[in-house]
């Protein structure tokens, strides 16, 4: 309340206190994105063109969806090493069901996601009920579902997507009507404004400090500039990508679940301290099982987008650096490896950092080995920053 009463100077002072105490929030990743844009634009003037930025947006969906699932797991202070294999197996199940057996593509996708949810529940059961370490359970899953992927694909090895089918369009469809992009931007800004005003009203009625109408208006104006600027950029190329719309919908929905629901608070509570959560009456095993189901389900959807992006499902989809990039994205975006701290937006921001770096390096014809080295260095820097931040917060009494 005092900060808001002091106006701009109060906010600047609070920002300085947060930085000194190690509470950096999304500041490092935002500064990193600005630095990435400056560096690659100086190296290649096509980096910030509408066409190239649209391509980056397309690359976000697959790994971004997997990264959102990773965020849920990391909030528990755990890990899931099976998500890359699950993404590949899910894409294989959908492709075989739709292409080889003629099942409706929507039903084939639902079948793939349903199988992934069952697998996630199985992982959670072994971890939560039988006490097997999550690392071991998901490592076994990584091997098992990779084998399942090969078995499902059979001797063919590769199945092309149905031309102009649902899966083919997931990562290749654009809303080329300019009104769609601007409409989505307007809905996003209006949604934020309504939610912020209602939240402030509820806090005042409860006798709690709340943002002023002026502050909310300034934040909404800043969001509007960003949203309509992005919409304008997409309309200069092919239009708004469906893949980005789906990713944003999942991120916003996940953020709402984590920040605004009882279940989300339980996830943070379990990640912050298992015994304390149990004594507070939280069913720790239920939270753990459902989190692994969420991560598995999102991995399946991400696998379908990866299949759409490459035009087919095969025995290698989901392998390589897919899992590592998803974990790296969540951590780079600000989700702590130690549990209890993070949000769904960190998956989007972190994935954007990684894909921007990859695209920028591709434009410089940099070898893949160098790309891996740079991504590893960025991930290490993010983990070091997280560790230092937690230590600083504990020292300052805010950890």
UniProtKB/TrEMBL annotation:
GO cellular component: plasma membrane
Pfam families: BPD_transp_2
Location(s) in or outside the cell: Cell membrane
Main localisation: membrane
Assigned keywords, A-Z: Cell inner membrane, Cell membrane, Membrane, Sugar transport, Transmembrane, Transmembrane helix, Transport
Transmembrane spans: 24-44, 56-76, 83-100, 106-123, 130-148, 179-200, 212-234, 240-258, 289-307, 319-338, 345-363, 369-388
Keyword Transmembrane helix: yes
Entry membrane topology: Multi-pass membrane protein
MF annotations from Gene Ontology: transmembrane transporter activity
Keyword Cell membrane in annotation: yes
PANTHER family, per the entry: ABC TRANSPORTER PERMEASE PROTEIN YPHD-RELATED-RELATED, XYLOSE TRANSPORT SYSTEM PERMEASE PROTEIN XYLH
Function field: Part of the binding-protein-dependent transport system for D-xylose. Probably responsible for the translocation of the substrate across the membrane.
Protein name per the record: Xylose transport system permease protein XylH
Biological source species: Kitasatospora acidiphila
Lineage summary: Bacteria, Bacillati, Actinomycetota, Actinomycetes, Kitasatosporales
